[in-house]
Design goal:
This protein has a domain at 1-96 and 174-230: 2-enoyl-CoA Hydratase, Chain A, domain 1. It is 45% helix and 14% strand. It has helices spanning 13-26, 44-59, 75-80, 107-112, 137-161, 167-170, 178-183, 193-200, 217-241; strands at 2-6, 32-39, 63-68, 71-73, 85-88, 93-95, 175-177, 189-190. The strands form two sheets. Strands 1-2-3-5-8 form a five-stranded parallel sheet. The termini are far apart.
């Protein structure tokens, strides 16, 4: 069993890659990996890496099941769709196969305060939309083109992993609750991770895998010294406060 609790940067991918490296070295053909996945999505490149890590399990011939109790949307669903089976709670949020890009623009504010802003680039599309300069229609069109291309890649990835989907019907950026997601074949089973594990425990051994970085000796000693100093100073302070 692996856990992935995703933030906008998919920061947990650094631990996930280590955990998967450990699993592929010891897993047997009859073993299965259950990924308990929770994520509202985030950056394309980091969630793409997370999904690629999961594909390592499939490449090694290890069965992968993804379980969603609360939410697997956008990049989270990109990860989930790699699994052979996706199980989800009845009201888990599933889908959001879309791409979004947004940013504020402060050019009018700067003009009102007589602030000049200059942006110099080499390469026609080195910068499209900008925070501080005036955005042009050409820049907006290019930015939209990039979003559409990313969406196309996203849809292709989902289709490759779940060919049973009618991709144009579900790749609208919408999300659905578990029961509705099942109707649209975004998931395979309505079930919580708890029930899945309880059923599996009747005839299988279950191991929970977590990666924990081993801190260097110097770092551990420094932490220990700080804790001792803090405890001593705290004790002295308490002594002074006692009647």
């Amino acid at each position: 069993m692996l856990d992935f609790d995703g933030d906008i940067r998919a920061s947990a991918v650094e631990h996930l890659r280590e955990e998967i490296s450990a699993v592929v070295q010891v897993a047997r053909p009859e073993d299965e990996v259950l990924l308990r996945l929770e994520s509202q999505g985030g950056m394309v490149h980091t969630y793409g890496l997370a999904a690629s890590q999961l594909r390592r399990l499939k490449s090694a011939g290890i069965r992968l099941t993804a379980s969603v109790d609360e939410v697997a949307a956008s990049g989270g669903y990109m990860m989930a769709c790699v699994a052979e089976r996706i199980i989800a709670a009845p009201f888990a949020i599933i889908g959001s196969i879309g791409v979004v890009g947004q940013l504020p623009n402060f050019s009018r504010f700067l003009k009102e305060h007589n602030v000049d802003f200059e942006l110099h680039t080499a390469g026609q599309y080195k910068r499209t939309l900008t925070l501080f300069g005036e955005n042009t229609d050409a820049a907006r069109d290019k930015f939209q083109e990039e979003l559409e291309d990313t969406h196309k890649l996203f849809k292709s990835f989902v289709t490759e992993n779940r060919p049973q989907l009618e991709i144009e019907m579900v790749a609208t950026g919408e999300h659905w609750y578990g029961t509705r997601a099942l109707e649209r074949k975004l998931i395979d089973i309505i079930q919580t991770s708890d029930d899945y594990l309880l059923a599996a425990s009747k005839d299988r051994d279950i191991f929970e895998v977590h990666y924990k970085r081993r801190r260097p000796l110097q770092e551990r000693l420094s932490s220990g010294i700080r804790a001792v100093v803090k405890g001593v100073s705290g004790g002295r302070w308490q002594d002074r406060m006692l009647p």
